[in-house]
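Predicting structure from sequence has reshaped protein science. With that in mind, we have picked out one protein's residues alongside their backbone shape tokens:
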Amino acid sequence: MLTIEAVDLHYGDAQALSDVSLTVEEGEIVAIIGANGAGKSSLISTIAGIYRPTRGRITFEGEDITGWPSHLVCDLGIGQVAEGRQIFPSMTVRENLEMGAVIPRARKLAASTMERVFTIFPRLAERVRQDAGTLSGGEQQMLAIGRCLMGQPRLIMLDEPSLGLAPTIVQEVFRIVHQLNTDGLTVVLVEQNVVGSLKLADRAYVLENGQIAMAGSGRALLDDDRLRQAYLGL
């Protein structure tokens, strides 16, 4: 479904990604893990069209989207839930969700999609007229995911969805990710929560200093001594 081939990314003279290649098959959950500064968010933003790679190729369902602007990538069916949620705090829950459906592919189905979002996140339905900035951290994360779903994505990329959340809320977020995948969404999950993401993922890639250092099934990587020592201290 998604193929990244030998992608480099530079910020000026600084190289953020080096020769990164990976694949995501339809229906999978693929985790991308690594320490702070490893290049995880840079990779997601490059796929989303926020940054243009300096080398390499990105294809989605066989179509070369390398260097496409982000609004066209989104309208093709790739959704992104950004790190830090990035909701509109002074707008209501409903208004935030409506913003997710402004792209052409989503407009006609906006009303029915919103009902689906409220089914997945009943707490948002209860707070539909509330300003988003007054929601709890967990509720804001639900809103960020719901806003992305309003765009009718076929592949959803979640960038650190558990960041800053209480452990019980983290488990709820992972449960929602699993449910979305069960319902048919392909998922790319960027996470510092190594154990949680590897338990959830079909396959995973480990980024170190902008390069793919390891790859394999989620379970195999979780059992890998090198990874356990580097990221879990075991």
The radius of gyration is 17 Å. Strands lie at 2-11, 14-24, 29-33, 55-60, 63-64, 78-81, 155-159, 186-191, 203-208, 211-217. The chain has one domain: 2-232. The chain has a mean pLDDT of 93.
